[in-house]
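Closing statement on the NAP sub-project.
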Amino acid sequence: MNNITRRTVLAAGTAAGLAAVVPARARPHGKIVIITGGTSGIGKAAAKAFAAQGAKVGFCGRREQLGRQVEQEIRAAGGEACYIRADVRKPDEVKAFVDAVADRWGGLDIAFNNAGIGVSAAPHDLTLEQWDDVMDTNARGVFLAIKHEIPHMLRAGHGVIICTSSSAAEQARPTGAAYTASKRAVQGIVKAAALAYGAKGIRVNAILPGTTDTAFVRPPGIPDDAWAKFKAAYGPLNIDGIERMASPEEIANAVVGLASDGFGYLNGASVVVDGGATAGRRMVIPPGFPGSEQ
Ligand SMILES: NC(=O)c1ccc[n+]([C@@H]2O[C@H](COP(=O)([O-])OP(=O)(O)OC[C@H]3O[C@@H](n4cnc5c(N)ncnc54)[C@H](OP(=O)(O)O)[C@@H]3O)[C@@H](O)[C@H]2O)c1
């Protein structure tokens, strides 16, 4: 990661932090950015972060009302953004979305292929429909986005693509067969694309967020105070290292940083941004034995 450590990237949770990580000349001012899954969570935070740095941001998602809302929020803050409804599982919609963003502003500089869903079920309980939906969204969706982004980047002779995998690609759960498989597939696609296009000026990398405070992990309808209590207990139990969930802005700022020219030698990599959770595993000594805390 050049001379910027992963710890520094993790610390970049604020505009000031981001400014410290990304030198002014490398920021995305005027760049054309495309994001899949920008209607909420990490993608929405990334759309805002890129726009706040002066980029033109085209993003998609299926929830039209939310998409328009995010577009308005960015414009109201003085940024440039365009929401286009597209479902990443549908090849024609992905192509139309990518081409529309490139045609609107005259090319593509940065792509953040981020749309994703999860499902939680033991392998024998997973339905074929659930398996297909997760793979079609998370893996095929990333493939389709890259397939249609690359021709624009090849024409320009440069580009940066970052795809959202997950720390779950490295650490499976008993109920995570489809999700972990889909996020490992993202890493596979990223590695192949990095080899295919690196010498043509296009860098392709995966980001592996750890648990992040979005609708992806927050049960629907849970009140704010109950959610705050859950998070306070969840962090120390599950996230070795920083001991709290990431905010979507912290992951988004890492994406903006990795997309900058300062990371020009980063290609085919899987960048874990999980507060340290996968760096190790807490050792629990059975109570009553030497070293036990109880
Ligand atoms: N939150 C975490 O703990 C965590 C950790 C590691 C990785 N991730 C990954 O981060 C990415 C973003 O998730 P998030 O946490 O920000 O959750 P989120 O708020 O649920 O965001 C998911 C985004 O993906 C979009 N999306 C889902 N299916 C789509 C489809 N078929 N076509 C187009 N867009 C689609 C959603 O938009 P619409 O619903 O409007 O279509 C939404 O914008 C996902 O790939 C997820 O796997 C999340």
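The beta strands are 32-36, 56-59, 80-83, 110-113, 159-164, 202-209, 270-273. With this model delivered, the sub-project is considered complete and its resources will be redirected to Aim 3.
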